Amino acid sequence: MVTIPAPTLLSVFVTAIITALLERFGPPLVIPRLVNLVHRPSPAHRRRAAHLRDLEHTLSSTSAQDQFALWAKTQRALESERAAYTGEAAALLAERQAAARRIKTTIGLVVLVVHFLLWLAFRTLPMLYLPPAFVGPAPLSWIWSIGGSPPGTLSFGLWWTICRTTVRRVI
């Protein structure tokens, strides 16, 4: 049987800080890097963008009065390329947004699993022994131990909630 050491107030507080920082600053730091790594524009998309820029340059350097046939042909090609590029860009953006949502959900699930595993391991262990009559008569001392720890002690669940609330207000 595996014995789990009793948690210290500081270790739970540090874990609460780490998970709160991961929730708060993880997505803005991680999402762009992973999305850029996985969902890059394809070489064909980049070639189409370069061709679109070339067509725009050609159109701007062509006189509509002197070279009307060339100008009209370039204008039609530019419009068709722009429509195709816009469609590809919209599809790529949708893929990137879906990936960002999945990454953010994964980070949230990791934080939730860490909290659940800590709660599962330490739910019956007292985090802090309270002085007698700390909150009034003895029948009221069970309030602090809600979550499974013995009466007269501070439970893991309550200490975790205190730590998370404090850290979230500071961050």
From TrEMBL:
Listed Gene3D superfamilies: Helix hairpin bin
Any single Pfam family the record assigns to this protein: CHD5
Keyword annotations from UniProtKB, A to Z: Endoplasmic reticulum, Membrane, Transmembrane, Transmembrane helix
InterPro entries: Get1, Helix_hairpin_bin_sf
Lineage, top ranks: Eukaryota, Fungi, Fungi incertae sedis, Chytridiomycota, Chytridiomycota incertae sedis
Transmembrane segments: 6-23, 105-122, 142-162
Superkingdom in the source lineage: Eukaryota
Name of the protein in its database record: Guided entry of tail-anchored proteins 1
Iron-sulfur among keywords: no
Organism: Caulochytrium protostelioides
MF-aspect GO terms: protein-membrane adaptor activity
Similarity comment: family membership: Belongs to the WRB/GET1 family.
Compartmental location: Endoplasmic reticulum membrane
Any single GO CC term annotated in Swiss-Prot or TrEMBL for this entry: endoplasmic reticulum membrane
Membrane topology value: Multi-pass membrane protein
Example GO BP: tail-anchored membrane protein insertion into ER membrane
